Amino acid sequence: MIFGACYYPEHWEKSEWRKHAKLMREAGFNIIRAGDFAWGIMEPKEDEFDFFLLEEAVNTLAEEGIQTVLCTPTAAPPKWLVNKYDILQRDRYGRRENWGSRREGCANSKDYQRRSVLIAEKMAEHFSRNQNVIAWQVDNEFGCHISTRCYCENCRKEFSKWLEKKYGTIENLNKTWGTVFWSLQYDSFDDIILPVYNSCEPEHEQLWSHNPSLDLEYRRFASDSWVKYQKLQADAIRKYTDKPITHNFMGHFSDIDYYNLAKDLDFVSWDNYPDNQWGSSEYAYVSMAHETMRGLKNKNFIVVEEQSGPCGWDIMGATPEPGQLRLWTYQALAHGGGGIMYFRFKALPYGMEQYWYGILDHDGIPRRRYYEIQKTAGELKQLEPYIVGRKNQYDALIVKTYDNVWAHEIKRHAGEFNYAGLLYSYYKANARLNINTAVSIGSYEDYKVVYMPGYNVVDLKEIEKIAEYVKNGGTLVTTFRSGTRDGYNNIFTSTLPCAFAELAGIEVEEFSAIRKTAYIAGIVESKANIWCDVIKPVTAEVLCTYTNHYFKDKAAVTVNSYGRGKVYYIGCDLEEPAMEKLVDYISSRAGIERTAAPAGVEFIKREGFGILLNYNDYAVHIPMKGKSLLNGGDFTGNLERYGVEFISWDNEENTCNMIQNI
Ligand code: GLA
Ligand code: ZN
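Above: inputs. Below: predicted complex with zinc ion.
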């Protein structure tokens, strides 16, 4: 199993490499990831390539049994490159980004593309002969801390070509986008504008000021631009080697269509920092990020950057407490991780990321965090068969599409509305009930319940697929603001909820963004604070009604029988306890086993065994029987603070007795 750290040989004296490699070996590491950002070392002057230093490091580490994942360095273009070529992005105000950090390049700059492909190709040619390089990473975190959307003239020209290919004629585009509104007709594709700052924007960075079709198409185009930029490099690498290629994704980050970005890669990797300068994440939020990454290819992923120390840029997040690094490692592996690498091996005394601590502090002395990782490595030797190539038994699916992320950002419906938050509220309720929940698209038949919250921009093929799934006995859950827009971000003119009306067996007669709290009662009681649909059941049965306002007694939540399946329509936002109750109600009727565990404890089911993770900073007792795969003995039911257990059971009956079923 891949187990290691991010290591930057160019940051250290050569004389230290072996010492570091020994410490790595003793920690149980077998791999490093290197090369990202080292363009200045590998091509110090245009066309002068020098891989000597990196190769020497790769070989020195290999002598201690440490192999390498090599990254192309293109996230950090050197000064000579920006001096000679205009590759820098432009923002919405037409301002040029400044060099001096990283990631400033425009994906559509021909010069940036050409220089990136060349360095990738030269690296691949050189290192294809080195057996210690076992995989490749293209670039680093597309979109991290700078927009993926550039507003330069290159991008505008490429965008008009992209549109011409899609729409054929400008008349077709004008008609589809409704440019007749405010006389925004284009005479030719050359006229196409980018959604830059305009007169409708009173404040900075308001992103709703354009025609919504233009806005959505530009986001799709910008995403495609990075997918293409990545592919240029991946193809260059593949000319010389057949070693697997990845890119490091960013979990919940949504400015690029990650399903598309993953298609050209052999495996997905991602970078996980649960507690940093910008805050600490709830455990379910991190679990959902892991599942989002697994769902991109429905395959094991690798965490290539896992937090291993306190981290931040000018201030720091909390230092991981004893047990947390081990816990986070198992959390990743329990949610589809097939290997892990920590960021970074040793903290650097200089540069912007002085405060991004790693396994070792600036003095390089192994202490608590090092020993905890070492202990985890030891355990993993034995647990590997339960991790690599293994899959959870998923009962539920949350459908996340990037079109919907973008469409909801462009037209947010109501001040407090947030698509990511809506998806998370459904994920979290499932997590609290310990239902293994995937985050992905397609293959609905694999799940007992499919959630499509806020599925606003509709792909009609998906509606056909989901209808088929329900007909055959599946359960679909959808919500307010679903089904209402076509693929061009225009609103359907059929009665709400348009694409879901027949499936849900309802009509939405009225709706409102909420100014005065609405209340609902029925199978659950809750306040609604963001949105309410006032539902007229056609064939559906009413499960909850509103209890105040002019729509008192009207339906808020319904269920419809469709073929052999059920469609639930949730017309308003719910508070957390109500959401949990609702998910419990739906899951029980769909035949999903839910298991109660103390708050802050996660239980993940795999065939024949389960994984318990205690995120609490106190010990808990769980009345569960089984064998501990960690120590071979009977599980006592005690889980220490930040504790982990792998528990196997002999028969199905035991499974059900493990934790009291709800
Ligand atoms: C990202 C990058 C790393 C490093 C960390 C910390 O995850 O991939 O290179 O910069 O953030 O900021
Ligand atoms: Zn650009």
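The first strand starts at residue 2 and ends at 6.
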